[in-house]
């Protein structure tokens, strides 16, 4: 595989975490404009753990994931009782709050004679675990793929268990969910925790691939993008958001035919898909049909 | 200190009145459609660039630039309405939102293509001297901004309460089912409301651009954010709330900017926004989210 | 395991309108009560108070002696109250099977969210398919509710209610919009599968169903209980006839 393909695939993988994270909340009936906050938290926490504290990679990434999940749950605790629009704006406010805090967040320590760590708006350089451990881009793509497979596996387990059904019932009709004995608030907080952890995993992996992160990378635009991926790809299955990422980054960026008109083409494509299929390409109905076909 | 606060409040009220107009635009669309048009800001951005283009090509005066801004915003909004709202079924609110985001991408890319530079000049009103009221200063363009916004809001109030169209808009916002039954042409009223919102947004965009004197395509994102935030602070679905939300946001931002600098302003603004949402979910105007819960309970 | 219900002095208002005014209703375990009254008389409001969606202004609701005041709808559901809806409330995007299964997710331990053993899945599947079979819906298990007829949707709601195995069932016009033959069929299903071993309150305008299922009825009018007693006796009451059927006293 050439370097370009590897970098495109890595990008697809990393954005998939963010897209799945927003998708989990969409399934649960909540629109989040702010999953990039957890991506940023994962990136910074993972980076600090491996670069500043010199923790092993897996532990550093794990730290990022746990922090993202815990903060996701804590933010959800007061916000889940907000409805629709209010929740969306609250997530947006939190994400911008995180970004503006990172703009003034400095935490530098001397490591091997160099000052390492985040330095406010100047960003966070030298997250060099992959370089020091001698992991090639292809090997790192493998790590990203393994992480993504773990997330998909977790969601597949939830689909076999009661988790996904609970999320979907709450998302579809919270009042009815309550009448079926489901604790709607608790399920929403659980969904936000899960979504926070997934986004943070993506962020931690991203930081170690890019070796440099800065607050400006975690703006609203990428949050809205990740939300759109799920809506384009479809809400019926976890492969929906991944399909959305594939369409955007895979098709348009890698083909380069549309080069500078990429957004005009992408925008038009998305608008068209949504007119024809308001719940995305892989919507619930299609997924059920595919499942029935597979079962035969 | 006290003087600073007074000065900041005045400046904040002026810029806040523009935020209020943006929020009113959002509220009109949200009220009638029950769907969120996040391409509202970018539509205004198209209008502003149309004005800037007219200005740079023929060094047009304020009035043609103003009209071009409105025309651009209205045209872009009409495009958004056709593609993202009229063409998508009424119950697919998420699809409309995602679609308006897609159109946002298109509009932004299109503008960047036509205007490849980073910033463009916009004609300003700065020929009038600074007004001094005792110890505080009032920038004339701020005064113009405030007065225009006030006049526009009065006009809007008149339209909504005194005309047949206004009555239809209010019926539709209050109860879509009742509106349909009583013979309101829902599609047409929705379209016209979209255009009305675009005009209001266009005026706000013009005022802001004419105050700053320079514009970038980022103003689309900026306008969407400020409008949304002001709308939600004020309480969804209330025009009065939207205006109050805009003014509060403007004043808070101005104070925080003065005392804490740009980074501090962002942190304070978003912290306040988050806290306001959590503690005061029905907004300053005291009106709860008209949608979700009441509607869900009504179905019981 | 049927529950005893005691409703004491229950009142609630929406805005200025008094929806219920000091209503007392007592149900002994296993009893089936028909609730009738003109539209807007507070029948559905009573259900909404019982399921915890509105808070009473005054009065108390006791389920087997347990006070339901201040409990959330989900807790009340777990105490064993389940209901159907006059305007149908199905999960549009989920399959018929998942609609019935919705009643089985409460009280599940956290582990179940991530994993169900194949045996547990099979057991759940078998019992729910049996349930769907009773209502003639097993063929439609993988369809969406939108693909069902109105009658099938009403059956599906009752199947979902049974999946929760409640102690007290609240049926809100189970035969609305049905023909006489369909009403007869659903009456039989309710009598054989829903009522045995449960207490029930049934709101219904169709006397055919009420007379067949409910040995006792209560009549609400403008939020007040105006009659309560054996069905035949209440229906013969002239005040009831006047409020309900608009008939002049003879």
Please characterize this protein's 3D structure.
The complex is a heterotrimer of chains A (296), B (300) and C (250). Chain A is an all-alpha fold and 296 residues long. Chain A is built from 13 helices and 2 strands, in the order ααααββααααααααα. Chain A has a two-stranded antiparallel sheet. In chain A, α1 packs antiparallel against α9 (184-210). Chain B has helices spanning 2-33, 40-58, 62-86, 93-114, 140-162, 164-174, 176-181, 186-212, 219-234, 239-279, 292-298; strands spanning 120-121, 131-133, 136-138, 214-215. Chain B is mostly helical and 300 residues long. Chain B has a single domain, classed as ABC transporter involved in vitamin B12 uptake, BtuC (Orthogonal Bundle). Chain C is built from 10 helices and 10 strands. In chain C, strands 6-7-8-3-9-10 form a 6-stranded mixed beta sheet, sandwiched between helices. In chain C, strands 2-1-4-5 form a 4-stranded antiparallel beta sheet, covered by helices on one side. Chain C starts with a strand and ends in a 5-residue tail after the last helix. Chains A and B meet through α4, α10 and α12 of A and α4, α9, α10 and α11 of B.
Features:
heterotrimer; A: 296 residues; mainly alpha; ABC transporter involved in vitamin B12 uptake, BtuC; two-stranded antiparallel sheet; 2 strands; globular; B: 300 residues; two-stranded antiparallel ribbon; 11 helices; 4 strands; ABC_transp_permease (chain B); cell membrane (chain B); transport (chain B)
Kindly report the oligomeric state of this protein.
heterotrimer
Order of strands across the main sheet of chain C: 6-7-8-3-9-10
Strand element count of chain C: 10
Low-confidence stretches of chain C: none
The greatest inter-chain interface is formed by: A-B, 49 and 50 residues
Give the proportion of residues in helices of chain C.
25-40%
Q: List the secondary-structure elements of chain C in sequence, H or E.
A: EEEHEEHEHHHHEHEHEEHH
Which CATH top level class of chain B fits?
Mainly Alpha
**What is the residue-mean pLDDT of chain C, rounded to a whole number?**
89
Membrane topology (chain B): Multi-pass membrane protein
InterPro entries (chain B): ABC_transp_permease, BCAA_transport_permease
Subcellular location (chain B): Cell membrane
Organism (chain B): Ruegeria sediminis
């Amino acid at each position: 595989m050439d370097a370009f393909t590897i970098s495109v695939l890595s990008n697809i993988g990393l954005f998939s975490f963010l897209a799945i994270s927003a998708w989990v909340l969409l399934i649960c009936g909540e629109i989040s404009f702010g999953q990039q906050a957890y991506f940023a938290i994962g990136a910074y926490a993972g980076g600090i753990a491996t670069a500043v504290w010199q923790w092993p990679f897996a532990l550093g990434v794990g730290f990022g994931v746990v922090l993202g999940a815990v903060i996701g749950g804590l933010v959800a605790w007061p916000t889940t009782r907000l409805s629709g629009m209010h929740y969306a704006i609250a997530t947006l406010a939190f994400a911008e709050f995180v970004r503006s805090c990172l703009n003034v967040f400095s935490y530098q320590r001397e490591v091997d004679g160099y000052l390492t760590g985040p330095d406010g708006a100047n960003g966070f350089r030298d997250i060099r675990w992959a370089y020091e451990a001698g992991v090639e881009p292809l090997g790192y793509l493998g790590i990203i793929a393994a992480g993504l497979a773990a997330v998909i596996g977790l969601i597949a387990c939830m689909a076999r268990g009661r988790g996904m059904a609970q999320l979907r019932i709450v998302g579809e009709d919270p009042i009815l969910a309550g009448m079926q004995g489901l604790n709607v608030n608790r399920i929403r907080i659980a969904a936000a925790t899960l979504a926070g952890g997934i986004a943070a995993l993506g962020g931690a992996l991203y930081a170690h691939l890019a070796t440099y992160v800065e607050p400006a990378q975690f703006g609203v635009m990428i949050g809205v993008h990740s939300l759109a991926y799920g809506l384009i790809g479809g809400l019926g299955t976890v492969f929906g958001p991944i399909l959305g990422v594939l369409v955007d980054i895979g098709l348009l960026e890698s083909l380069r035919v549309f080069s500078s008109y990429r957004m005009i083409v992408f925008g038009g494509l998305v608008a068209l898909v949504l007119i024809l299929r308001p719940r995305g390409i892989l919507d619930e109905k299609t997924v059920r049909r595919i499942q029935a076909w597979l079962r035969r | 200190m006290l003087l600073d606060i007074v000065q900041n409040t005045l400046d904040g009220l002026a810029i806040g009145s523009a935020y209020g107009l943006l929020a009113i635009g959002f509220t009109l669309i949200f009220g009638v459609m029950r769907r969120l048009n996040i391409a509202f800001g970018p539509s205004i951005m198209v209008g502003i660039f149309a004005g800037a283009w007219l200005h740079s090509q023929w060094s047009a005066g304020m009035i043609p630039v103003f009209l071009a801004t409105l025309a651009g915003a209205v045209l872009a909004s009409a495009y958004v309405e056709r593609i993202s709202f009229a063409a998508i079924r009424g119950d697919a609110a998420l699809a409309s939102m995602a679609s308006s985001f897609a159109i946002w991408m298109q509009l932004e890319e299109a503008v960047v293509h036509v205007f490849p530079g980073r910033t463009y000049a916009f004609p300003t009103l700065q020929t009038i001297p600074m007004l001094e009221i005792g110890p505080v200063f009032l920038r004339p363009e701020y005064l113009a901004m405030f007065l225009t916004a006030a006049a526009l809001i009065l006009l809007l109030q008149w339209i909504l309460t005194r005309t047949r169209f206004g009555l239809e808009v209010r019926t539709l916002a209050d109860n879509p089912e009742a509106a349909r039954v009583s013979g309101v042409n829902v599609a047409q009223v929705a379209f016209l409301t979209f255009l009305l919102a675009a005009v209001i947004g266009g005026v706000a965009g013009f005022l802001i651009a004419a105050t700053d004197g320079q514009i970038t395509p980022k103003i689309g994102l900026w306008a969407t954010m400020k409008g949304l935030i002001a709308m939600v602070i004020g309480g969804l679905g209330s025009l009065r709330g939207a205006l109050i939300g805009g003014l509060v946001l403007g004043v808070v931002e101005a104070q925080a900017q003065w005392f804490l600098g740009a980074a501090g302003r962002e942190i304070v603004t978003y912290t306040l926004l988050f806290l306001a949402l959590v503690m005061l979910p029905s907004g300053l105007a005291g009106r709860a989210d008209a949608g979700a819960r009441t509607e869900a309970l009504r179905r019981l | 395991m049927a529950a005893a219900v005691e409703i004491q002095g229950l009142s609630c208002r929406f805005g200025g309108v008094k929806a219920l005014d000091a209503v007392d209703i007592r149900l002994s375990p296993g009893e089936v009560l028909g609730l009738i009254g003109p539209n807007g008389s507070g029948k559905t409001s009573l259900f909404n108070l019982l399921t915890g969606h509105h808070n009473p202004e005054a009065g108390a609701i006791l389920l087997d002696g347990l006070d339901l005041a201040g409990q959330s709808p989900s807790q009340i559901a777990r105490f064993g109250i389940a209901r159907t809806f006059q305007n149908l409330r199905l999960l549009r995007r989920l399959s018929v099977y998942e609609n019935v299964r919705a009643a089985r997710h409460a009280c599940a331990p956290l582990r179940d969210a991530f994993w169900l053993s194949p045996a547990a899945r099979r057991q759940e599947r078998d019992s729910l398919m049996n349930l769907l079979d009773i209502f003639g819906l097993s063929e439609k298990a993988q369809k969406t509710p939108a693909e069902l007829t109105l009658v099938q949707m009403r059956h599906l709601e009752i199947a979902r209610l049974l999946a929760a195995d409640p102690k007290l069932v609240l049926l809100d016009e189970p035969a609305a919009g049905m023909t006489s033959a369909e009403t007869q069929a659903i009456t039989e299903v309710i009598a054989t599968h829903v009522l045995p071993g449960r207490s029930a309150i049934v709101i219904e305008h169709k006397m055919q169903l009420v007379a067949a299922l409910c040995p006792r009825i209560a009549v609400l009018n403008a939020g007040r209980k105006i009659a309560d007693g054996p069905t035949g006796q209440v229906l013969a009451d002239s005040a009831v006839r006047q409020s309900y059927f608009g008939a002049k006293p003879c």
